[in-house]
């Protein structure tokens, strides 16, 4: 089972659609962690679970989305409402309250993954304005036999192996 995760595309349409098309046969779900700056019903956003970022003004976007894929509870939020640029603690509290195993967020434009208290926190970075990286990034979450692994890729599809992170769920 694989899930495409992207964030902070800030108005890009071709790239959001291209990622969806590139991975249409690989993934069973797609997540956009906010700041698409596109209308909620934009065709490029179809088939994405999506949330509101601080630059999304369409009120149809929820602040938080929860889903379960292959028995894996996932929480999605942009992160601006939880201060993710300075700390993940408020997001950790929300994850515990919602009993999420995987937490997807954006806002900082920094591609990274953290395992905290047995939960996997994924920020796919930004496909438009990356920080702390010379390349726009997105990620793919794989889940099999209770092992979740997130891999990061540049927009042109090259893997960034030093960012990979895995966790085994009980």
Architecture per CATH nomenclature, i.e. the level-2 architecture: 4-Layer Sandwich
| CATH topology title | Purple Acid Phosphatase, chain A, domain 2
- Considering DSSP H and I runs of 4 or more, what fraction of the residues is helical? 10-25%
Q: Give me the secondary-structure category.
A: mainly beta
Please tally the helical runs, counting DSSP H or I stretches of 4 or more residues. 2
Number of domains: 1
Q: What are the low-pLDDT stretches, counting only 5+ consecutive residues below 50?
A: none
Rg, Cα atoms, Å: 14 Å
End-to-end span in angstroms? 18 Å
Mean pLDDT: 97
What is the total tally of β strands?
11
Q: What composes the largest sheet?
A: 6 strands, mixed
Major β-sheet strand ordering: 3-2-1-9-10-11
Shape annotation? globular
Strand composition percent: 25-35%
CATH class category name? Alpha Beta
Say which CATH homologous superfamily is assigned.
Metallo-dependent phosphatases
> What pattern of helices and strands is seen along the backbone?
EHEEEEHEEEEEE
């Amino acid at each position: 089972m694989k899930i495409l995760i992207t964030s902070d595309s800030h108005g890009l349409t071709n790239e959001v659609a291209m990622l969806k098309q590139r991975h249409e046969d690989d993934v069973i779900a797609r997540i956009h962690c906010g700041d698409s700056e596109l209308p909620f019903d934009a065709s490029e956003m179809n088939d994405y679970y999506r949330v509101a970022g601080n630059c999304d003004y369409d009120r149809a976007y929820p602040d938080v989305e929860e889903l379960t894929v292959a028995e894996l509870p996932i929480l999605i939020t942009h992160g601006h409402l939880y201060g993710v640029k300075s700390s993940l603690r408020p997001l950790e509290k929300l994850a515990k309250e919602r009993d999420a195993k995987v937490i997807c967020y954006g806002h900082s434009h920094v591609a990274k993954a953290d395992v905290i208290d047995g939960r996997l926190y994924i920020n796919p970075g930004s496909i438009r304005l990356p920080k702390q990286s010379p390349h726009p990034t997105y990620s793919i979450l794989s889940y099999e036999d209770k092992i979740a692994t997130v891999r990061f890729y540049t927009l042109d599809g090259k893997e960034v192996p030093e960012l990979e992170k895995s966790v085994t769920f009980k």
